[in-house]
Amino acid sequence: MSFVELRNISKTYGKNRVLDRVSLTINEGEFITLLGPSGCGKSTLLRAVAGLNDIDEGGSILVGGRDITQLPPKKRNVGMVFQSYALFPNMTVYDNIAFGLKMDGLSKAEIRPLVEEMLGIIDLKGKEKRYPNQLSGGQQQRVALARSLVKRPTVLLLDEPLSALDAKIRRSLRNEIRAIQQKLNMTTIFVTHDQEEALTVSDRIFVMNHGIVEQVGSPNEIYTSPASEYVARFIGNYNVWSREQLEGLPLRGLPDQGDMFAVRPEAIRIERPDVEPSGDEIAADGTISMVSILGNVLRFEVLVSGLPVTVDVLSGQSIEHLPSGTAVRLLIPRKEWKSVQKSS
Ligand SMILES: Nc1ncnc2c1ncn2[C@@H]1O[C@H](COP(=O)(O)OP(=O)(O)OP(=O)(O)O)[C@@H](O)[C@H]1O
Ligand SMILES: [Mg+2]
To answer: Could you tell me the residue range of the domain that residue 64 belongs to?
Structure first.
């Protein structure tokens, strides 16, 4: 049975409908991510679960079978961590983590083992007497996480908790969050507009677009089989073309069906112009117009009669030295040529 259930959630500000009948279910212990561009309604949906903003008539929120739609935030037993750490600057790490338990009326003796356990989980043992300004950003965010987790919320809500951190710490902390979440089997809703982040940490991703959920799937499904032009453009560096753009190009094997197509740049092979495609490949002839080095990947832009095609190749392969202006044949396996729904 699903553990969290959002039914028909809408939210309107004036004439602006920022959530439009969103329904979704989350299993117990699952880590799901709301992924989408700025303004698509991610925070609004998350805050609705926490009770921090109300929702339009007709929607309901269930957690563990209990309808919490009308409950005030305090009674929902939901933990939330925001982008800004929002720690109490005048309290030590220990007191920040202990704060919620104290408010709940637990005694010092009851609080101590719970805080100690959390300090271990977030790996800040020995730093409990420090104040927030004596910690790095990543450490502060771990304290914010501990402060939520120590109350054993039924659901953990994370609203872009990593976006204030630099790239390296972001990557390590996202893995830590995932490990802690799995250890505690904590049902978690994570919000981000960073597709790489979503792909690495989530059990399932909900891709949002203007107040609706456009596609739901595992990271692998979302990445390899985007259902729409919108998702394809948002995830990775897909080439997205309409049939009109492709017709009349030096391209052999275009499928009969579909109006809109998406192809991952790493699914395309660059070959010499005389290499013949196999029966299950689509071939396109073009000229290299640009090569850039993205760390371990070389990114080629190939112009096929003026249409730019992005091709990614792992560094260290023999085509590395193909300069701009080289005529090439692109080979694309048919199964990598995805037909996607057109987005308006
Ligand atoms: N209190 C409010 N009053 C009016 N409009 C609001 C309010 N809060 C949010 N909105 C609007 O609702 C839409 C969704 O906002 P929301 O904060 O949920 O987006 P988001 O997906 O979290 O974006 P970001 O990635 O920038 O955080 C935006 O157009 C925003 O301007
Ligand atoms: Mg937001």
So the answer is: 2-233
Atom from ligand 1 closest to the CA of residue 47: 18
Among protein residues, the one with the nearest Cα to ligand 1's atom 26 is 38
In a domain, 344, yes or no: no
* Domain CATH code at residue 238: 2.40.50.140
Nearest CA to ligand 1 atom 24: 38
Q: Amino acid letter at 305?
A: S
Contact between 246 and 337 under an 8 Å Cβ cutoff? The reply is no
Task: Check if the beta carbon of residue 44 is closer than 8 Å to that of residue 11.
Answer: yes
pLDDT tens for residues 43-97? 999 999 999 999 999 999 999 999 999 999 989 999 999 888 789 999 999 999 9
- Residue 206 · residue 46 · CB < 8 Å: no
Measured from the Cα of 14, ligand 1's closest atom is 4
On whether both 35 and 149 belong to a single domain, the answer is yes
Each residue's pLDDT tens digit, 297-323? 999 999 999 999 999 999 877 677 788
Q: Output the CA–CA distances (angstroms, integers) from residue 209 to 117, 157, 252, in the order listed.
A: 39, 20, 34
Tokens of 105: 């009326």
Handedness of CA 69, 73, 79, 82 (dihedral sign): positive
Strand partners, 312: 299
Pocket of ligand 1 (CB under 6 A): 13, 18, 36, 38-44, 193
Distance 129 CA to ligand 1 centre (A): 37
Answer yes or no: do 295 and 277 share one domain. yes
How many structural domains does the chain have?
A: 2
d(CA 289, CA 118): 54
Domain end call among 217, 233, 249: 233
